[in-house]
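Narrative progress, year one. The postdoctoral researcher (J.K.) led the effort to move from monomer predictions toward full complexes, under supervision of the PI. The following entry was the first complex the group processed end to end, covering 419 residues in total.
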Amino acid sequence: MKKAIYIFNDGQLKRKDNTLIFIKENEEKRVIPVNAVSEIHVFGELDLNKRVLEFLTSNKIPVYFYNYYGYYIGSYYPRDHLNSGMIILKQAQFYLKKEERMFLAKSFVYGAVANILKNLNYYKKSKEEYIKPFIEEIEEKSKEIDKKEDIPSLMALEGDIRKKYYEAFNVILNIGDFFFDKRTKRPPENPLNALISFGNSLIYTTILSQIYRTHLDPRIGYLHETNHRSFSLNLDLAEIFKPVIVDRVIFSLINKNQIQLKHFEEDIDFAYLNEKGKQIFIRAFEEKLNTTIKYKNLGKVSYRKLIRLECYKLYKHFFGEQIYQPFIANW
Amino acid sequence: MFVILVYDINEKRVQKIHKICKKYLTPVQNSVFEGNITQATLRILKDELKEIMDENEDSVLIYKFRTKKYYDRESIGIKKPSHEDLFL
């Protein structure tokens, strides 16, 4: 019900009358009903004060900041309101026991690969001869997941598979402006890389928002190393959802010609989306998240909710109620 | 659930009612609000309104739609905010 708000204009975010108000530079005011907001994504230049942060804390609204190029730079993450020492201990326990950690890490990779194959199989219908070799190669590689005995080599294998998968994008995408040579980040070196980077930024924060709604601690991840700096559980879960959400949004935007070269910053080699481009992408991304699918015996579930369900599956795993099985798209 | 809320309130209290509504719904006209809201949150909103309203003088109407399938908003003249706006 609550929705995410994206701020692109420069301006001030204020607390007024116990709700939020956004004042644009041209003095135009917009009231944001505080009870209808789940999270705020900030792309423009925003002024805010401590009073707003306090108010956001009491309403449990996280704020995510992105830099000029649309990269995630950080978040204001309200003090944990769902605080559970129990679950942190469990999470840590599973992290410290090598075989438990490997099991979860492999589950994430397994889920990612299965969803990647689903995507490729979807396009196999129309482009069988081109896409088949990719599918076969990825299937071959995925057999090695089970054999890996430590995290770095598992990560390497996952990277390998993803590289092959990105190469298959050249077959899937119909439009010559968008092609894949190699994955480049910081900065992405062509428009397709820019789309992938931007999409990944968005999925990381979307998952973080969902984790925040559970007792799980995003700081403890399994496939991605837990460290002193960043959240990593959301990166783990993102592996599963990138093919299902981000990549599908990219395919449809490009193949339907909704995103074009004019939506990129020309003067820096089309390496970044411009504001219009970002908005088109976000609109499609939000639409995707709100799409509902029939899921098991739960009736209709949106993709956003599906992410949260994935968190609850981890709960059950940690408490020994049910072994974790990653979400795999079944269509 | 999608709702449209309209009110007629005595001037003395209209400010207070407006302030309450804008915590939950998007103001689209003077005394008209719209937005998505859950059953539970709507109940909280109604309780807050009842605290302030004088039931002999004031009136609040809430139109509820289970889905937005049968809803189409046409606007003429200057553009007013919508609850569907994603970008600010």
